[in-house]
Automatic annotation (TrEMBL), chain A:
InterPro entries: NADH_UbQ_OxRdtase_chain4L/K, NUOK/Mnh_C1-like. It is found in: Cell membrane; Membrane. It comes from Streptomyces jeddahensis. HAMAP family: NDH1_NuoK. It catalyses: a quinone + NADH + 5 H(+)(in) = a quinol + NAD(+) + 4 H(+)(out). The chain crosses the membrane at residues 66-89. Residues 100-110 have a biased composition (Basic and acidic residues). GO terms for biological process: ATP synthesis coupled electron transport. It is a multi-pass membrane protein. NDH-1 is composed of 14 different subunits. Subunits NuoA, H, J, K, L, M, N constitute the membrane sector of the complex. This is NADH-quinone oxidoreductase subunit K. Residues 100-130 are annotated as: Disordered. The keyword Acetylation does not apply.
UniProtKB/TrEMBL annotation, chain B:
Residues 68-115 form the NADH-Ubiquinone oxidoreductase (complex I) chain 5 N-terminal domain. It comes from the Bacteria. It is a multi-pass membrane protein. The chain crosses the membrane at residues 6-24, 36-56, 76-100, 112-130, 136-157, 169-188, 200-224, 245-263, 269-296, 303-321, 327-352, 373-394, 420-443, 464-483, 495-517, 641-661. The gene is nuoL. This is NADH-quinone oxidoreductase subunit L. It is found in: Endomembrane system; Membrane. Residues 132-403 form the NADH:quinone oxidoreductase/Mrp antiporter transmembrane domain. Keywords: Membrane, Oxidoreductase, Transmembrane, Transmembrane helix. GO terms for cellular component: endomembrane system; membrane.
Amino acid sequence: MHLAYPAVLSVLLFCTGLYGVLARRNAILVLMSVELMLNAVNLNLVAFDVWLSQAARDTLHSGQALTLFTIAIAAAEIGIGLAIVLAVYRARGTSDIDKLRDTAEARPGPEDDDTETAAPAMADKTEAAA
Amino acid sequence: MTTTTLAVLVPLLPFLGAAAGLLLGRTAPGYVRPLAVLPTLTATVLAVLVAVRQGGGRAINAATELTPTGSVPVELALHLDGFAVLVAVLVGLVASCVQIYSTGYLRDDPRYPSYAALISLFTSAMLLVVYSGDLIVLLVGWEIMGICSYFLVGHYWETPEARAASLKAFLVTKLGDVPFLFGLFALAADAGSFRITTVLGAVASGALDHPTLIALLLLAGVAGKSAQFPLHTWLPDAMAGPTPVSALIHAATMVAAGVYFIARLLPVFAASAAALVVLAVMAAVTMTGSALAALAQDDIKRVLAYSTIGQLGYMTGALAVGDRGAAVFHLLSHGAFKALLFLAAGVIIHAAGTNSLAAMSRMRDLRSRVPDAYWTMTVALLALAAIPPFAGFFSKEAVLGAAEHAAAGEAGAVPGSAGWIVLVSGLVTAILTAAYATRLWLLAFRGHGAEAPDHGPQPVVMNAVLWVLAVPSLAFGLTAGLLPDWFDGHPLTPTLTTSVLGTGLALVGGLVTYGAWRHTTTLAARVPLGAVAAHPEADAGVVEAEAIATHAPAYGDVAYAPDPADPGRLLLGPLHRHAAAGFHLDAVYSALFVRPVRAGAELVRFLDREVVDTYVRGAGTAPRWLGTAVRRAQTGNVQTYLSVLLAGSAVLAVVAVLVATRGA
C-alpha cells in the first residue's frame, strides 16, 4: 500500500480534530477532538514505521513502540481531562468552553486600568474558583 | 616645663575642654561650667607664661613631623615670635572673659553645654592659628574657626535671621577660603615648604616667582575672614548670634585672624607693590564705607559690627604700608575694647529689652540701671574714637604714623600711593568713628522719655568681666614704648602731626554729632517708637534673641528705624538711607550672584523635571500602554488562543520554508 493513503487519512483525521478543538463548544467534544489528533499522529507513526521497515533501514520499529507510548499517555490524558471537565461541570453547571473565561483580562474601565480595579476582579475570580 | 611644651598646651587645653564638654554636656550638666571656664583660663595663664618666657626675643621654632605627606612636608610646627605670644594672650584673655560672661548671659539656655564647648573649640582653633608655624596646620585652625562661627551665629536657629546669617557667614568666608587654599599651594610650590620660617627665608632670597598672584589669592581669604570689602557683608548679619559670640568671634579674635595672617607673612605681600596697593585700596574702602554705615545703623550691635569692620580696615591699612607692628598693636587694643563694647552692649540690651538705639533714646535713666556697663562702655567708646590717653588713641596713631611714613616715601619698598590712600582714608574715618561712637553713647545713655524698665541688677559675672576688659582699654596704650621690642622694632609712639590731626578730627566728629543730637533730640518726644522684648525678666540671651526677632516686624528692617530724632540721619542727609542698607551691597550681590545662581537652579530644575523626567516617565508609560494593548487579547477563550497559536505556527512555517527555498 502506498504511503500516501495512510498519510492523507491521517491529515484528514488531524484536520477534523483540529477543527473540533478550535470550533466545538462542549469540553467533552474538544477532548474527543484531541484524541482524534493524537490518533492521526499514531496512524502516521505506524505508517511511516512500516514504510521505513520495508526499506530495511529501521529494524527496531521505534514508530510502533512510540505509538504504544502515545496511546498510554492519551489514556491518562483523557482520564485527567474528563475528571477536570466533570469537576468544572459540577461547580459551574456547564461544560461550555465559551463560558469558562476566568483567565480573561478584566475589562478595564474607561479611565483606569490599574491594580485598583484589577485587585477586586482577582478576588471575584478566586471566590468563583472556590 | 619648656616653653615649647607650654605653648603646645595652650591650644590643647581648650580643645580637650571642648571635647569633654561635648561628651559630658548631657550626662553631667554640673561639670559644664567648670569645663568651659577652667581650660580657657588655664590656657590664658599658660599663654601669659609663654609670652613672659619668650619675652620678645628670638623666635622659638619647634617642629615635629607626624608622618610623611608627599612632596611638600606638613609638620606640626610652632613659631613663637613677639606677635604670636602677645596675640595669644589677647585671645586667651578675651575668650576667658567671654566664657565667664556666658555663664551669666546664657544662664538658663538649654543649649549652653554645646555653646560653651564650641566657644572652647573656637578658642583652641584661634590659638592654633596664632602659634602655628606651618601653613597647613594654620589652615586647619582657620577652617575650624569658620565652622564654629557657623554654629555659634546660628545659636538661635529658631529665628530665620540667625539661620540666614549663619549660612551667609559660612558661604561668604568659604568664598574667600577657596582662593586662599590655592594661594597657600602656590606659595608652597614656590617656596618648597609650608613652614613659615622657610617661606620667609625664600621670600628674603627672592625665590618667589609669582608674588603678586600669591598675595592676591591669599588676600581673598583674608578679606573673607577679616570682613574686608568686598567680602564683609557677613559680619553685620552675624550679629544675629548671641552677644558673647559677637564679642569673641566677630570682634576680638576670628576676624583678627586674617590680619594676623598677613602680619605673619608680610614679606610675601611686601614683595609685590601691586598687592600692597590693592590692600591699601581695600582698607580705605572698607574703613570709610563701614564708618558711614555704622553711623546709620539702628541696632546697637550692628553699629559695633560695622565699627569692627572699620577698625579691621585700619589694621589692613597698617599692613598695606608695611608696618605690621602698628597693625598688631591696633589688633591687640581693638580686641580688648571691642570685646568690652560688645559685652557691655549685651548688658544694655538685656536691661533695655531692645537692641534698637531709637527705642533706647526714648528711655530715661538707662545709664543708672546699668552703671557698670555705662562707665566701661564710655571708656571703650573713647578708646574707639581714639581720644588720648585711651588705648585706641595710641594704636590708631601708630597706624596713621606708619601711613604718614609711607606717604613720605620713607618706608622702603612700600609705594607712596598706598601711604597716601591709607592716611587720607584713615583721617576721614577718624571723624566718622568719633561721630558714630558719640551717636551710640548719646542715644543709648542720654535718652529722654519714659523711665527705663527695671529688671533688677545684672549678674555679677557679667559686670565683673566688663571691668577686667576696661583695664586694657584704658591703659594698654601706655605699653606703646615697650611693644617695639616685641615686634619689628619700628617705634609705635604717636608722632606729633598725626596725633594732633587725628585727635582734632575725632573731636570735630564728636562735637558735630553732639550738635546734631541737640538739634534732633527735641523731635524724639514727638515720635513715639519702641519695641521691647516680651519677656524682660528672662535670661539675657532670650531677651536678645527676642529683640533681634522683633526688630524687623517693628521697624521694617533689621538695620533701619524710621526715627527722625537720629543725629545720624541729620549728618548723613540723603546718604542715610543707603548707609543703613550697607550701601546696597547685599542687593548688588543678590543681583550679581544670588539671582543668577537661582536662575541656574531653576533651569536645572526645569531640565530635570521636564526633560529628564519625561524620558524616565516615558520608559514606564510605553510598556504600560503596550501591556494594555496586549491584555486585550486575553479573552479567556482557550480556543482563541489555540487559533492564534496555530496561525502563528503556520506563519512561522511559511517563513521557514520561504527562507529555506530562497537560500537553496
